[in-house]
Amino acid sequence: MSYLDKLLEDVEVKWKPLGEFADYEQPTDYLVDSKNYDDNFLTPVLTAGKTFILGYTDETDGIYKASENPVIIFDDFTTANKWVDFDFKAKSSAMKMITSKDESKALLKYIYYWLNTLPSDLIDGDHKRQWISNYSRKLIPIPCPENRKKSLEIQQKIVGILDSFTELTAELTAELTARQKQYQFYREQLLRFNEKEVKHLSLGDENIGKFIRGGGLQKKDFTETGVGCIHYGQIYTYYGTYADKTKSFVSEEFAKKARMAKYGDLVIATTSENDEDVCKAVAWLGDEEIAISSDACFYSHNLNPKYVTYFFQTEQFQKQKRPFITGTKVRRVNADDLAKIKIPVPSKEEQERIVSILDKFDILTNSISEGLPKEIELRKKQYEYYRDLLLTFPKDNLEE
């Protein structure tokens, strides 16, 4: 019999309304006043949504001391929630702070892990305050409710197991962040050359390459199979530094009249909703030619394809790009302006050496098949598996 089987063997469970064990507080006394956020300030400003930490404030009054009394922050509209054990200020009154009414009956961390087994049952457009109208009425499994000591012992063991998984994921995430910073540092250093030692030529220089605008490809033109294509929006939502397979396809008939990129060309998004994504590029390393959408262009050149793509990721490139960005809601850089940006052009051997170094960092920090992101995803799935296994009890004893 496994440890889990022994832990849960013959455990009597009763399902009771969550509101019997969890209390809530509005963050009214802890709302931030200033919008002057700065990473050098000490106190994080929280939202229960995906962003979580909006920034840091220098305000010293009205700070919730979660370092002394941890809480679950709960978004009353989306039901998103986070475990918080550090001091903070809140951004919005839409966030509730959940605590345990009695830790001798139900551990707050146990409640938190159980909350995250619940599927979202929200309906689009539902703007109800979810905690009172919905979540406080949900039934939570309480093991051995008649024996508080045993109940807490089981809850503590469940929490301990799940904590070990979340701590491992946090360590891997911290490692990934450190490696990403290291990657960024080396990329900036390796692609920076003294202009007296290495020529810096315009991307549109006739000795290097030229930009070709994409055609009229739209998402409605996609087919299940056929000729590969890249839509501009996929460049910053799907692709990484390089690719040899496309996510989407068009018919052979459509491809005959499309603008086609070949092996080694860079495919570049010339339109985005933000400055960071505009001009994001992916090197096409597939054997077949592919169709390119409008609001994108491709760069045909005689440089190492990955070398050019890595250059597009540097601050050196970004600094030259920014003055050419136009538009308000939609941000654009046209191909003629891209051609004016200068790139350092070392020898072919030096380009290959730089690429070989940066490829290792790229795989480590971005690969979903062999790098840290894959390891983190595997640990998350392992955590979710054991969380659901540990917190899914038979519903024989539902509270009337």
From TrEMBL:
Keywords (A to Z) from UniProt: DNA-binding, Endonuclease, Hydrolase, Nuclease, Restriction system
Xref: Gene3D superfamilies: DNA methylase specificity domains (3.90.220.20)
This protein's record includes keyword Hydrolase: yes
Gene Ontology molecular function, alphabetical: endonuclease activity
One Pfam family in the UniProt entry: Methylase_S
Domain of life: Bacteria
Family per similarity comment: Belongs to the type-I restriction system S methylase family.
Name listed for the protein in its UniProt record: Restriction endonuclease subunit S
